[in-house]
UniProtKB/TrEMBL annotation:
It comes from the Bacteria. This is Uncharacterized protein.
């Protein structure tokens, strides 16, 4: 199911930390908030910011960031809860399975892994359910397979 894509990889830990801090501070340019940046920030939050309850705060963090750069969080654009929660589960699974150490090497390995693929949530969700308004607005359990737990 995964389509072939070449992720933009990171060269330095500082770049990943800057993405995470920029997300928290709403200080990133909109164009910096790419698929790779989402995953890098998630891995950084889970591994380097144990003071942040990712499950409780991720939705508000991303919504607030989107709005800070002029974005809208509505029924068709902006924050998507089910996709975000699927990727958080995927990053946790990756972290439980990887032997990689170091922030940059872990993020780059994640981006090259099945969990880093742009269509990874479609292993668990039908397209119709995943792209529904209800799945965008709140977490909807997958209809094809349960999300993995580490």
């Amino acid at each position: 199911m995964t389509t072939e894509y070449s992720p933009r990889l990171f060269e330095r830990d500082e770049d990943i930390r800057a993405l995470g801090e920029g997300l928290l501070a709403c200080a990133l340019p909109r164009e910096a908030w790419t698929h790779e940046a989402h995953l890098a920030a998630c891995l950084w939050l889970l591994t380097e910011r144990p003071d942040i309850d990712v499950d409780a705060r991720i939705a508000d963090m991303i919504r607030r960031f989107n709005e800070s750069v002029g974005g809208v969080n509505d029924d068709t654009q902006g924050y998507h809860d089910s996709i975000t929660r699927a990727y958080v589960a995927g990053v946790r699974l990756f972290l439980a399975e990887t032997a990689e150490t170091g922030l940059t090497s872990r993020v780059n390995a994640l981006l090259r892994s099945p969990m880093g693929a742009r269509d990874w949530p479609l292993r668990f969700y039908s397209r119709d359910l995943l792209f529904s308004v209800s799945a965008r607005r709140g977490f909807v359990p997958p209809d094809l397979a349960p999300l993995p737990a580490p």
